[in-house]
């Protein structure tokens, strides 16, 4: 496995320019004072990024690059685990054993994505306890989308089709992110998200082709999830505080608006195949642009959700805090087991010597 989860901070990357510059600190013939030559380190970092190579945990990196990545990756990790809640709400009520098994696997995948991502953030020097503390105290965000309720079974389909679809559109370019552990984690995550998106599409298709009431339920879910899904891509480019720098560092490869447009262009024909409409009267093909035009997004709603005033913000955070508290004994037991295991292994290693 090549995920960051199993290969954290230990990957020196010989050959990258930044590693080369850092290595010069220790090299036998290195010039005195070179270790402190920040300009050389910055030059090497810039060259690595420009050459489309990866920055690895042991490479020198600007503080702002580290903190931007920590911010974005932590928000991403938090989104994965908070994102388990809206769909987990339907596991016990899934309409068949097949649907239940699929949904359980999907929700479990999201937990796994959280694990890969927390492990990847840890390679930047912030521990998981600190990250979770920031989530629980509201100092770090998670995606706005998970503050909306899943009101009917069709919402599970709409979340899969639209929310996972938006997530894939945003995350495929992150597989080429300049930070190695994040890029590698995203490869596996995207494969799984692709399965998630298809299960949502298939679920909605079944409902859309079902009874009149089932079709209406599917349409209602799509109507409610469409606009919040477009908000997942973040504020418009003109108001995106971090995009320019993140794109210069090749953390982000496309702007928020570019990815949002790509998502709209993908969804329109899929909605047609589903036999469902999208709730936007301004959605129309623009021959000149070669893209669909679409209506204005309600950015006031987006800001309200980010400020903690969405329909489910309080419920999501309370449930997360409760789950964390109730899981204390599991973490304690796992830590005790690990201690016992390491002591036991040590004892086993010592025994022959003692006997000798
Ligand atoms: N929600 O300057 P920008 C998933 C914040 S995973 C909340 O444009 P940036 C899988 C942003 O943090 C979904 N906050 O920021 C799944 C910043 O605030 P700050 C999560 C948002 O980072 C499916 C401020 O606004 N995916 O769905 C949002 O350059 C189903 C200014 O914005 C990721 O996290 C938002 N929607 O671009 C799981 C992908 N948008 O920190 C379960 C990785 C913006 O200054 C079930 N992240 N903000 O206080 C990214 O690609 C980027 O971080 C963006 C935002 C595109 C989200």
The class by helix and strand makeup works out as: mainly alpha
Side by side, the strands of the main sheet go 1-2
Quick check: average pLDDT? 89
Distance between the termini: 40 Å
Give the ligands present: Phenylacetyl coenzyme A
Strand-residue proportion? under 5%
* Gyration radius, in Å: 23 Å
Seen as an oligomer or otherwise, the chain set is single chain
| DSSP helical segment count | 14
The count of DSSP E runs of length 2 or more, i.e. the number of strands, is: 2
Helix residue percentage? 55-70%
**Biggest sheet overview:** 2 strands, antiparallel
Q: What global shape is seen? A: globular
SSE pattern, N- to C-terminal: HHHHHHHHHHHEEHHH
Q: Which segments are poorly predicted (pLDDT under 50) over 5 or more consecutive residues?
A: 1-32, 350-356
């Amino acid at each position: 496995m090549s995920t960051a989860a199993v290969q954290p901070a230990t990957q020196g990357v010989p050959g990258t320019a930044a590693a080369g510059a850092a290595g010069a600190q220790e090299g036998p013939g290195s010039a005195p004072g070179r270790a402190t030559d920040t300009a050389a380190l910055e030059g090497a970092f810039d060259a690595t990024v420009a050459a489309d190579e990866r920055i690895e945990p042991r490479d020198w990196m600007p503080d702002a690059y580290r903190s931007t990545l920590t911010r974005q990756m932590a928000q991403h990790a938090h989104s994965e685990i908070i994102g388990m809640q809206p769909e987990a709400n339907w596991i016990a009520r899934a309409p068949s054993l097949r649907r239940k098994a699929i949904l359980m696997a999907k929700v479990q995948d999201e937990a796994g994505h959280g694990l890969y991502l927390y492990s990847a953030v840890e390679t930047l020097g912030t521990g998981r306890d600190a990250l979770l503390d920031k989530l629980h105290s509201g100092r770090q965000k998670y995606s706005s989308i998970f503050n909306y309720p899943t009101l009917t079974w069709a919402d599970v389909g709409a979340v899969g089709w639209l929310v996972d679809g938006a997530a894939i559109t945003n995350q495929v370019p992150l597989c080429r992110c300049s930070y190695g552990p994040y890029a590698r984690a995203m490869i596996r995550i995207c494969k799984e998200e692709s399965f998630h998106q298809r299960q949502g599409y298939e679920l909605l298709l079944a409902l859309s082709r079902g009874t009149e009431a089932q079709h209406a339920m599917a349409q209602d879910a799509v109507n409610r999830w469409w606009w919040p899904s477009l908000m997942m891509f973040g504020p418009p480019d003109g108001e995106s505080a971090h995009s320019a720098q993140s794109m210069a560092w090749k953390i982000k490869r496309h702007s928020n608006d570019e990815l949002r447009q790509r998502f709209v262009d993908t969804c329109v024909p899929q909605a047609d195949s589903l036999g469902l409409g999208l709730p936007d009267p301004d959605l129309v093909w623009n021959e000149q642009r070669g893209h669909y035009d679409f209506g204005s997004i309600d950015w006031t709603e987006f800001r309200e959700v980010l400020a903690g005033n969405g329909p489910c913000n309080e419920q999501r955070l309370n449930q997360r805090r409760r789950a964390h508290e109730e899981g204390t004994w599991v973490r304690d037991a796992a830590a005790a087991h690990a201690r016992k295991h390491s002591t036991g292994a040590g004892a086993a290693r010592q025994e022959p010597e003692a006997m000798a």
